[in-house]
Task: structure prediction
Amino acid sequence: MKKSGKVKLGLIGLGTVGTGVVKVLKDFDNIEIVKIAVKNINKKRDIENLDTSLLTTDPFEIVNNPDVDIVVEVIGGIEPAFDLLKTAVQNKKHIVTANKELLAKKGQELFELANKNNVTILYEAAIAGGIPIIMPIKTTLAGNKINKIEAILNGTTNYILTKMEKEGVSYEEVLAEAQKLGYAETDPTGDVEGYDSAYKIATLATIALNQRVDINKIYREGITKISAKDMQFAKELGYKIKLIALARLTEDNKVDVRVHPMLVPIKDCLASISGVTNSVVLEGFPVGRVMFAGPGAGEFPTASSVLGDILAIAGSLGSDNMLPFMRCNHEINALQVDIKDTVNKYYISVTAANTPGVIGTIGEICGRHNISLASVLQKGIDRENTAEIVVITEESKENDINAAIAEFNDNKNIIKINSLIRVM
Result:
């Protein structure tokens, strides 16, 4: 415990999450916010009786303030966040951050600097919003060897896919609605192209699999090519489509980390995660399979995780070896598997000419590339005398699938490849 007085806190950022942090901290008499860095001091804030004298437009007033014990950063992005937190660590201040991109790209440098300066960096809010996941992995599950993570880590994409599934509408229609409701940004690229999920799984996989994962080697694919027909066909075949962040250890201890849409069996627990809800499923020994689910974003859910980290640090201030179990000491750089070297089941949707034997042709092409078919679904003939044919394969090599797709493209009876989606 800190020897005397209140714990002094500096807050960088007063957006949705920062506002939630200020509101929840009002109930804690042992913690005092001494400064809040904002872009615009004159902006109207949704905080009752906010002391505007605490506001500053210079965040370096916080990281260089000798009275500040803990710096809380909730502005996101790389700069100026990295420079600010680096300065704060050098000034022996403990850090709480919700910045998933910063951790994914600059985490190694920050954690090594923190270890040198004997300070702690906590980041529960950076992974799954209000869902506690890092602390449980580091404490309750510390005796387990985690070998697999399957997660839904982005509420915007899960909302879009849920609406497409339930209402049978297009991606473009649901995106426009999500933007109007504030679930999606004006520029939704970070969410819908999978960047947000990739940042999160990079850090989560590093912690859970105990090997340092390189964000630049994570395969990433978004949801922009998913159609309402894909959702319908998946449902008929017993699946739902979700954007999955996946990380697993291979038999030779390599790490397979990726983000892409997947057909999830309807009976799987992740298939039931709808709307903006997030979920993380961990598999390991001896625990088996455990699931965490809850709100992945928002003012109070994210503030809940930030608050937990603040209180963990506050309760240990003055210790010679603060929260040692939360330190990042990953000496092994993961050998990451290239997506082309993976083995998966696949959903393939094609538009084909309505000619005798076309399904047999698809089967023959797959057979030539060591691909076995598990399911085949053909939908009715349209005005142009074409049919949509959907197949689900048995486990196959990504390279073999790509070779088969190339042969599909060269076949005169296969008019178009509509979709290629991996299957859980």
Notes: The chain has a mean pLDDT of 95. The radius of gyration is 24 Å. The chain has three domains: 7-125+299-326, 134-295, 341-423.
